[in-house]
């Protein structure tokens, strides 16, 4: 299933690119998504952040009380990169390109990811629900990001 999301930021693309791989920004996202545990480490050209979050109520019977999400953001060039999200212990992942482009207000970040849940018979249904849930988390990054950028200016 394709997951497409556009986020609007109030800073130039170069600042947004740096923010998306900043461990401090990831820590603020962890607070926003109510992570019970969080870890971030810099990797070549990016950041890998692990968030342990409460599972959505509807999914707890299938996944348990918590989800461990590993979010990797890496840059191929100053304005293009990749985002990968994997759910530890589940056959679910999101992977796709990120692109940043300047706008009069600052920057538009576009995510075009492929969401896959490999569960026989239930995969498509879980993908639909997971897409809605992940879109909510990605939008949280927009809120946190704009507040982060405002403090940095």
Describe the structure.
This protein has a seven-stranded antiparallel beta sheet, covered by helices on one side. The model has no long low-confidence stretch (mean pLDDT 87). It is an alpha+beta fold and 153 residues long. The longest helix is centred in the last third of the chain and has 30 residues, at 123-152. It has one domain (2-152): Alpha-D-Glucose-1,6-Bisphosphate, Chain A, domain 4, CATH 3.30.530.20. The protein has four helices and seven strands, in the order βααββαββββα. The chain has helices at 13-20, 23-32, 60-63, 123-152, and strands at 2-9, 37-43, 46-54, 66-75, 80-87, 92-103, 106-117.
> How large, in whole angstroms, is the Cα Rg?
15 Å
Summed up, the helix count is: 4
What is the distance, rounded to the nearest whole angstrom, between the alpha carbons of the first and last residues?
38 Å
Query: How many β-strand runs?
Result: 7
């Amino acid at each position: 299933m394709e997951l497409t999301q556009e986020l609007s930021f109030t800073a130039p693309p170069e600042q947004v690119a740096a923010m998306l791989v900043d461990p401090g920004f990831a820590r603020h996202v962890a607070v926003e998504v109510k992570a019970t545990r969080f870890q971030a480490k810099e990797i070549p050209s990016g950041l890998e952040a692990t968030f342990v979050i409460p599972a959505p109520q509807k999914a707890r019977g299938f996944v348990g009380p918590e989800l461990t999400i590993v979010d990797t953001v890496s840059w191929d060039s100053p304005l293009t990169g990749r985002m990968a999200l994997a759910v530890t212990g589940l056959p679910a992942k999101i992977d796709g390109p990120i692109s940043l482009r300047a706008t009069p207000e600052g920057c538009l970040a576009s995510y075009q990811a492929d969401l896959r849940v490999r569960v026989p018979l239930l995969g498509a249904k879980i993908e639909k629900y997971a897409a809605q849930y992940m879109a909510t988390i990605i939008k949280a990054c927009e809120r946190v990001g704009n507040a982060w950028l405002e403090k940095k200016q």
